[in-house]
Specification:
2 domains; single chain; alpha+beta; T-fold; ten-stranded mixed sheet; disordered C terminus; globular; disordered N terminus; about 35% helix
Length: about 350
C-alpha cells in the first residue's frame, strides 16, 4: 500500500508538471498574423494554433469570393445585377445574397429604417469619400429619399429571387456585409480546429474564444476626437463581435458644416443624432454591424432602446458632448482609460421591455 501511495504521488507530480508546462506553452504561443486588403478595406487576422496559417489563407480566399458576390461597386456581383434590374422582373441570385438581403430587411424593419438596405441611391449621390464631394440640392435629396424604401425590396427565399419595385432603386449591403463576412470567417476557423482568433474587417471585429491563456481579449474603443489608435477605454470580451459606426473618419466640410458618410435614410442627409460613435457588441458580427449603424442614426435614447430589446446585445455610445453611455451588461467589462475629466460614463439599465432606463453616472 505504501508503495502504491508513493507511486500515486509521483504520478500526480508528473501530471501537475505536464499541466504547468502546457499552460506555459499556451502563454508563449505566437499567433499567425496577416494584413490584407479585401472588401474595400483592411483585413487583419490574428490566429492561434497548428492550423493558423492555413485557416488565415483560406479566410482571405473566402472573403474575396464574398466580395465578388455582395459588392455594391463590382458590376458583376449579385447585388449589382439586382440594382441594374430595378423596376424590372425578379432576379435570380446566389444563396448568400438572398439570405443577407432577407436578414437586412429584418434589420431595416426593427430599426424603423434607421438601418436601411435601400440607402444606395443616397450613398451614391452624396459620394462623401470622393475627391470633390458636394451637398445635393434639397429637391434632389427628397426624390432620392422616396427611392430609399426598404418596403420596395421583395425577396423570395424558396425561388432564390429578389426584386426592386421602382427604377433607380439600389440595395446596398455596405452596412452589414463586413459583419456577415466576419461571421463566415469565424465559422471557417472553427472548422479548421482553431480555438483562439481575431478577425478585423475594417473595424468589424469577430472574436473566437479567448486568448490562448484563457484571458479575455481587450478591444479598444476609439476616441472619436483623436487620431486612429487613441482609445477612451477598452472592452474585455470573449466569443463576441464588436462593430463601431462613427462620422469622425470619413467626412467632408462645406459651408462650415461637417457631413459624414453615414446617411440617415429617413432625411436623406448625413446622420446628425448627437453621437460621435456607436459601438455594438453582439453574439454575431452581422448583428453588431447592422445595429451599430442603426444606433448611430437613431441617437442615444432610441438607439439604446433598440439594443435593449435584443438578447445578448450591448452598446457603448459616445455623445458629441463627451458622455460615454454604456449598457448594463458591460458593467465590469468596460474600462475607461481616458484622462480624468475628458469623458464621463453613464450606465443605462433596463426598467421595462422597451425602455432604455435611467442613467446612472460613474
Amino acid at each position: 500500500m505504501r508503495g502504491t501511495k508513493r507511486l500515486s504521488r509521483a504520478a500526480c507530480a508528473a501530471i501537475a508538471l505536464a499541466v504547468c508546462g502546457a499552460l506555459l506553452a499556451a502563454c508563449r504561443e505566437r499567433p499567425h498574423e496577416t494584413v490584407d486588403f479585401v472588401m474595400g478595406t483592411v483585413v487583419r487576422q490574428t490566429v492561434y494554433g497548428p492550423s493558423a496559417e492555413t485557416a488565415a489563407r483560406e479566410a482571405v480566399e473566402r472573403l474575396r469570393a464574398l466580395e465578388a458576390a455582395l459588392s455594391f461597386h463590382d458590376a458583376a456581383s449579385d447585388i449589382s445585377r439586382l440594382n441594374r434590374s430595378s423596376g424590372g422582373p425578379q432576379v435570380t441570385l446566389g444563396p448568400e445574397a438572398i439570405g443577407l438581403l432577407e436578414r437586412s430587411l429584418e434589420f431595416s424593419r426593427i430599426s424603423d429604417g434607421a438601418f436601411n438596405i435601400m440607402v444606395g441611391p443616397l450613398v451614391r449621390r452624396w459620394k462623401v469619400t470622393a475627391d470633390r464631394p458636394d451637398v445635393p440640392p434639397p429637391a434632389e435629396i427628397a426624390s432620392l429619399v422616396r427611392l430609399a424604401s426598404y418596403r420596395d425590396l421583395s425577396v423570395d427565399r424558396d425561388r432564390r429571387t429578389a426584386r426592386l419595385a421602382r427604377r433607380g432603386q439600389m440595395a446596398d449591403l455596405g452596412g452589414i456585409a463586413k459583419g456577415y463576412a466576419s461571421d463566415v470567417i469565424l465559422a471557417l476557423y472553427r472548422a479548421r480546429g482553431v480555438r483562439s482568433a481575431i478577425i478585423d474587417i475594417g473595424g468589424n471585429i469577430g472574436l473566437l474564444g479567448s486568448r490562448p491563456d484563457g484571458r479575455p481579449w481587450n478591444i479598444g474603443v476609439q476616441d472619436p476626437g483623436r487620431e486612429r489608435g487613441s482609445y477612451i477605454g477598452y472592452l474585455s470580451l470573449a466569443d463576441n463581435s464588436v462593430s463601431t459606426s462613427g462620422g469622425y473618419e470619413r467626412f467632408f466640410v462645406a459651408g462650415g458644416r461637417r457631413y459624414s458618410h453615414i446617411i440617415d435614410p429617413r432625411t436623406g442627409y448625413p446622420a446628425d443624432s448627437g453621437l460621435s460613435s456607436a459601438s455594438v457588441i453582439a453574439p454575431s458580427a452581422e448583428e453588431s454591424d447592422a445595429l451599430s449603424t442603426a444606433v448611430f442614426v437613431l441617437g442615444a435614447s432610441k438607439g439604446i432602446g433598440l439594443i435593449q430589446r435584443r438578447p445578448g446585445v450591448e452598446a457603448v455610445c459616445i455623445t458629441t458632448d463627451g458622455t460615454v453611455i454604456v449598457t448594463e451588461g458591460l458593467r465590469g467589462r468596460f474600462t475607461l482609460t481616458a484622462p480624468e475629466g475628458t469623458y464621463r460614463v453613464e450606465y443605462r439599465y433596463r426598467v421595462g421591455p422597451d425602455a432604455a432606463g435611467p442613467a446612472r453616472q460613474r
